[in-house]
Each structure stands twice: as C-alpha cells, then as structure tokens.
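Structure Section — protein described below
Tokens — whole-number codes for backbone shape
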Amino acid sequence: MSINEKLKITPLYDEHVALGARMVPFAGWNMPVQYSGVVEEHKCVRNQVGLFDVSHMGEINVTGRGALDFLQMMTVNDVSKIIIGQAQYNAFCYENGTIVDDIIIYRRGYDSFFICVNASNIEKDYSWLKEHAPKQGVILENLSDDYAQIAVQGPKSRELVSKVVDVKIADLAYYHFAEGKVLGVPSIIARTGYTGELGYELYIPSSAAPKIWKALMQAGSDYGIKACGLGARDTLRLECGYLLYGNDMDHTTTALECGLSWITKFEKNTFIGKEVLLNQKEKGLNKRLVAFEMQEKAIGRHGYKIYSSKDGEQEIGIITSGSPSPTLTKNIGMAYVTTDYSKIGSSIWIEVRGEKKLAMVVKKPFFVHGSVQG
C-alpha cells in the first residue's frame, strides 16, 4: 500500500475498537487481527463458537439469460451443476491457467448468481468479468459496498444462528444457503465457512451489521462465544489445508499446481485457461503445493526458502503459509516444491534464520476431525 492510501473500514469497526481488538492493515482494510489472543480464539471456534467480521470480502451479482453460459466460460468448475439454493467453490483463471481469484458462487435463481470474492481482488475480479461479458444477456453488479458479512463458526453455531433467523437451518446442508431474515433484515444465510467447523456466513445489509453483531455476541454468551480476528481465521484455515489467495495461489501459479484439480472440470466444452491446463495435465507439473510438518523445533514462515538437503545443495521451493497449529501442537505449513520432492514422506530442509531445519511432506489436511459436516 502507498503510505498515503487510506485504509477502508467495515461497518463493524466501532464494535472491534470497543472490544479492544488489535487492528492491522489487511488487503487495504483496517481489520482486527485478534481480541483475546489467537490461540484462545482458535480453540473457541474448535470447541464452541466464534464470530468473525468478514465484511471486507466482495460480492458480485451476475444475472440475465446468458449468466450461466458466461460463468461456465469464466470459471474452471461446472456451474451448471449448481442447483438453486446451493453454493460452489470455484475459481477464475487467466488464459495461461494461473489464478485470478478463488470464489464461491451462490445460485439464487435459474439465471441469478451471487459471487463472493476475495477482498484484495474485488475491483480486479469485477473488471475481469466486465472485460469478458457479452454486450447483451448478462448484467453485472458490484454489490460489495451494500453487504456486510459475518461468519459464525464452531460446533455451537447452529444453535446460535437459529436464535436470530426466521428460516429453519437445522436441515441446511453444507454448501447450501437459505434466503430469509436475520433479526427482521433480509439476508442470505449460507452454511459455508473457512474454519473446518460447522458454521454459517451471513450476508446482510451493511447498515444492519452493528445491530446483528451485538445481538449475536449477546445471544452467544450462553455458548462461550468470542469475537475472533484474522489471526485465528488464518490458523484455522491452515489446519484444514484451505488456500489463501496471495499466499498459496496467485497470478503466478496455475489451478493444477496449487491443488485445484478437483474443481477443474475438463469435460466442460471450454473455459478460459483450459488449453494450457490440459496441456499441463498431460505433460506433468514442475512444482506442486504440498503440506509439511516441521521435524525440528522451528516454525516455517511465508517466504522461507526450501532446500533438498541440510548443506543447501539445491533450492527446491518456498513456503506460502506456515504457523504453529493450536489444535495439533505442531508447526505446520504449505509450500511449493519441485515435483521430485512433492511425494508424501519426502524430507525437505527449510531455512529458518540462517539455519536449515528438517521438515516432512505430509498429507492434507492436517486436521480432519472438525464439525464442518455435522
């Protein structure tokens, strides 16, 4: 960021300050990184329920008779498979197969799609869509300023959210959503999240955010609720092997290299980046995103270099995400390494403050016992 660039604030900024949050710049926003402490907030989400302000995320509407065909061209996953009331994890790619952004698409009607995009990519994504949209049949709307987003995550989240919504969510399946009211305010109640736990993301009008946040905090006191910041959000998602745009994938990494082959549907007629990705699939990858666990007392952090041996014989990769795991009490991370070192069980050496520390490539995710499917 430019030193003169003013940070944006969410509609919940005053609530964060009142709760004593430590605020930090993130993707052009002034966001809470922690309140009571990262580990405490992390464990609260794993065991009870936590509340996150994710209003910095963007929302884009794509509607019209050509919306489905347009999104089929723009994304790697098969949008035609989404039924009304269902969500889908997806991604936009450039022509060379690298990632524009990873997104969630919510299908609200036959020709009505609501897309959640990453905060740092709102303008870029919207411009990318406008650049490729047909002149007729597709209507694009950047609704990011109109919506706030509150994530309620943890084993107790269903009980809590049930207290403030007017729709039955007991049978709402994972990656599905309902349209109803939160405290009388028209909203989207989605059973999605970034923590590996049962959870809901509430898309609400920006003006109603403070009222709803306060009500959730008050009602959640019965369940041991805590406000949670970006720090806990990061450790929670890392334990589950969820990718973070700008760290684990970006415009320099392809959908296959970062492990998104499971959502890349080559059976689709065509999509932007398909030819390059298909060629890469057939010829093989030069690098892969892998998970690792430290085997020595050290923490591998974003940007640390990886070597093939302790004597630094060959540089083979770089860490994209890394931290201690509060749940597993291990030091974990993700990294790009050359394909020769991507097999599970491979030993790699990470340069930590000038010293090589041993790590091992392991299977993702690190944490598999969450309540997300509960």
User: Anything to note?
Assistant: The chain has a mean pLDDT of 97. Residues 239 and 357 are 21 Å apart (CA to CA). The chain is about 20% helix and 35% strand.
